[in-house]
Amino acid sequence: MTDDAAPTVNTLLHGLQLIDAVQPWLHLPDHGALPDATRPGRIGMSDVAAIQATTDIFRSLDNAHGGGLSWRAVVGQLHAVTDKARQGRVSDEVGRQLFVSVADLASVAGWMAHDVGRHERAQDYLLLGLKAAKQAGPDGAAIAGHLLNCLARQANHLGHPGDALDLVQLARYGTRKLPPGRLRAMLCTLEARCHAVLGQLPDCGRALGAAEDALAAERDVSETPSWAAWFDSAEYQVTVGVCEHLAAEHDPNRGHRAARAIEMIQVGTAERPGERTRSRAFDQIALARATLRAGHLDAADEVTATALDLLGQVNSTRVIDHLRELDSELAAAPAAKETSQARERIRTALSAAT
Predict the structure, then answer these.
(1) How far apart are CA 218 and CA 224, in angstroms?
(2) Which domain of life is it from (predicted)?
(3) Are 175 and 141 in contact (CB under 8 A)?
(4) How far, in Å, CA of 212 to CA of 184, rounded?
(5) Neighbours of 46 (CB within 10 A)
(6) What is the domain partition of the chain in residue ranges?
(7) Per-residue pLDDT of the chain (354 residues; tens, 9 = 90+)
């Protein structure tokens, strides 16, 4: 983190290589190595606050519009901030918070790169964030858990649910001493999703129960860091619904699972803040897939149209990827006017967006 090398674009890691890359974070030192105090330029807590404020602006832009418009800007900011961290003199207290802020900025850079399909770069920046979190010592445990959460979500998106499960379980282990709250709930719901994809339904149910308990035990919402604020009641409800939808693939009682998925996604969608445009697009795609599985073809067509309206408001490769998955499921459904209409809508929208 404090050497002169900028992040390099490596081959995308997966399997044991990826797990080996994140393992060092599990052993956070009591005192990380801070920049050489003899170098010029002092960094104070006001500088740390400015870095965090800038990070929050980029995060808001990402949530509203996707990563396409801003990811290069946030990467430039990350280079500037890492230079500042490498060259400036800090007290121990400021140093810990500085590297937490660098780790958070790296999480936004990595997530934006992932959102536009630059997966190798995304992984590089997320791993860089883990290095910064390690230098923050115990103060970096929570943000490191979030970075592992991002890496796990990326692995899931790329079709590696086993890697995602390993990463999220490492994150749960590494953050086990932190008080219950949104981070634990976030990790538990992601673990549940991995179990659902893999057909491990009892484990999925247990993880969802642990997530509900963690949310209920949250003490002071006002202290929620900005990187965890997105995991609110709406996100929890929708994620439960998505888990039910995925679990239905492996459950003979698919109808009950599909109905439960529709119910939970609709509850979460109703609570979703309006400015979270990309999340609302994902909500509608998830709802379309659930209604399709339940055999409600009219509803699936209608919800698909709503999702496509939101596509025009975001610049996100992930939204396009999810729409392609929906198109594949529509193609596999029984032939009907509604599924043909929905597929035509998707093809037209993707042709315009790509």
Answers:
(1) 9
(2) Bacteria
(3) yes
(4) 10
(5) 9
(6) 13-164
(7) 444 444 555 689 999 999 999 988 776 555 555 555 445 568 899 999 999 999 999 999 998 888 887 898 999 999 999 888 887 788 888 889 999 999 999 999 999 999 999 999 999 999 999 999 998 888 999 999 999 999 999 999 999 999 999 999 999 999 999 988 999 999 999 999 999 999 999 999 999 999 999 999 887 777 789 999 899 999 999 999 999 999 999 998 888 999 999 999 999 999 999 999 999 999 999 999 999 999 999 999 999 999 999 998 999 999 999 999 999 999 999 889 999 999 999 999 998 876
Closest CA to 268 of 313, 238, 243, 245: 238
Q: What is the maximum alpha-carbon separation in the chain?
A: 72
d(CA 175, CA 209): 18
Which letter does DSSP use for residue 42 in this model? B
Residue type for position 334: P
- Name, in order, each residue with C-beta under 8 angstroms of 268's C-beta and a sequence gap of 6 or more: 233, 234, 235, 236, 237, 238, 239, 240, 241, 283
Find all residues with CB under 8 Å of 220, minimum gap 6, and list them: none
What angle do the packed helices 254-271 and 277-293 form, to 10 degrees? 160
Angle between helical axes of 71-87 and 45-65 (0-180°, round to 10): 170
Listed residue (7, 2, 22, 25) closest to 133, CA to CA: 25
